[in-house]
Amino acid sequence: MVSPFEEMEGIIQVVSGYTGGHKENPTYKEVCSETTGHYEAVQITFDANKMPYEQLLNIYWRQIDPTDIGGQFHDRGQSYETVIFYHNEEQRQQAEDSKEALAESGRFLKPIATKILPATTFYPAEEYHQGYHKKNTFRYELYRQGSGRDAFIKKHWPKDNGHLKERLTDMQFYVTQENGTEPPFQNEYWNHKEEGIYVDIVSGEPLFTSLDKFDSGCGWPSFTKPVMSASVKEKMDVSHNMTRTEVRSKEGDSHLGHVFPDGPGPNGLRYCINSAALRFIPKEELEKEGYDDFLILFGNKK
């Protein structure tokens, strides 16, 4: 529940913990025993100018099964039930309105069971629970996929990408939207050497530059690093009976490829990227295309 929020602009802090119960400073073991009345929860500090409360609610609904009255997916018991805790009357009303809108949307056949309760004392969880998805990425990803959460979300909140089918080629859509892989040595940029930058074919956000491109011999474009560390996000991928690190674009959420620890650069990384996920912009056209900020990388002034 932490990662969907902490990735968003306007989120200041996300803390895992316990709330809604009757015992002071409960431990994880006590909460799981279902004797303290607490719920496992996250406390979110946010900038309402950048992240309106209504948007927080929209993100929340897309992470849960709001019709489950006995827990969430594989996690059963009162402590795992879904609750929105409000801090003032305005939040309560927005939460009630959001819940009603979801119920009337027809997205779910069963009634919405998520409770809306006044916030009580929040107790931060033990340190090993904070950022658990980052500290124990492999175990967390296995648990998440095995729990059925991802399949449920995909079924009930499918991407509305019909417009992309019209704009992208079949291969571009397959790679970026369906996590596909194009054939090696039979793609546009595997042996491309022109100076310039590579942007997301979907969103246009800058991803890599020719300055960091190298021939890895794998048959796909390879880079030692993204143009900016914030340009991409990484995710554990355990598909096809392998454990890999997937690379996706930050804004467009396009599947790009994978990163491996066998690169030639100082960081030892190789970003193996599908050409179909990229659009190349030559150095000479950066200003015309609105990417003039990157001219300095090639020794050119704006």
3D structure, described in words:
The protein is an alpha+beta fold. The protein folds into two domains: 154 residues, Peptide Methionine Sulfoxide Reductase, Chain A, CATH 3.30.1060; 136 residues, Peptide methionine sulfoxide reductase (Metal Binding Protein, Guanine Nucleotide Exchange Factor, Chain A), CATH 2.170.150.20. Helix content is 25%, strand content 24%. The strands form five sheets. The protein has a six-stranded antiparallel sheet. The protein has a three-stranded antiparallel sheet with strand order 2-1-7, with no helix packed on it. A three-stranded antiparallel sheet has the order 9-8-16, with no helix packed on it. A hairpin with a 5-residue loop joins strand 13 and strand 14. The protein is elongated, with a radius of gyration of 22 Å. The mean pLDDT is 93.
CATH-scheme architecture of the largest domain = 2-Layer Sandwich
> What would the average pLDDT be, to the nearest integer?
93
Overall number of strands: 16
Task: Note the main sheet.
Answer: 6 strands, antiparallel
What's the CATH C level of the largest domain? Alpha Beta
Strand content: 15-25%
Question: What is the rounded Rg?
Answer: 22 Å
Q: Span between N and C termini?
A: 43 Å
With strands numbered from the N-terminus, the spatial order across the biggest sheet is 10-11-15-14-13-12
The CATH superfamily of the largest domain is Peptide methionine sulphoxide reductase MsrA
- What is the global morphology? elongated
- How many separate domains? 2
Succession of helices and strands:
HEHEHEEEHEEHHHHHEEEEEEEEEH
